[in-house]
Sequence to fold (252 residues):
Amino acid sequence: MSERALAAAVDAARAAGEIAMRYYRGGFDVVIKADQSPVTQADREAEAAIVDVLSSAFPEYGFLGEELGSHGNAETRWIVDPIDGTRNFVRRIPFWATLIALEERGEITVGVMHVPTTGELYTARRGGGAWLGSERLEVSTIDVMRDAFFVHAGLGLVRRQGWWEGVERLIDATDRQRGFGDYLGYALVASGKAEIYAELDLKPWDLAAPKIVVEEAGGRFSDFAGRPTIYTGTALATNGRLHTAALSLIRR
Fold:
């Protein structure tokens, strides 16, 4: 079943990507939502396309989506972010992705991260590994913090939400730091190109697909309290070997 679900998720992500790319190359209106984040016609139409494809394949499954909300079966549901990185999309920065995951009884079992601007397709299913196209992904083997590459998201948010000192400790402890954000940080960890990624102020649709991709690549995913959940708003993804040390630094 997970293979069929993964194939359907890939089809849905590609359909959404085609819609998003038409707007990306052309034009669109931007609306600011109540949480001050932007949304475009591309977000809404891409999510609607995802729902159409997946509802046809699995009519008994529910949905939790960024734009269309929650509906249907909550026990087994698709978790959808049609454009992860809408701010990049709006400014024509090519780092944004369509994220689709399947949650079954609280566990993420399938995940897809599709990058329409490059054609990159990250896929994972529970027990089946994580893949970039036909290449199997593996996290790095670095096990010394001073050799680690630490990736972070927006730093202003880190300061405003009270995690500045923890992130500062990670900066001081690691060899290299860059701010990439969104799906890309998880992709770098899963592919062994970075060891630690931290971000916050997150929703389940930001994290469901990245979580299983990182885990199936051999890494570890948790919130800042060390819990393997997508529902508390913080996220730490690592190569596994450095997870406990990174948690200790960010929480101390």
Observations:
- The chain has a mean pLDDT of 95.
- The longest helix spans residues 2-25.
- The helical segments are 2-25, 41-57, 86-90, 155-160, 164-173, 182-190, 204-216, 243-251.
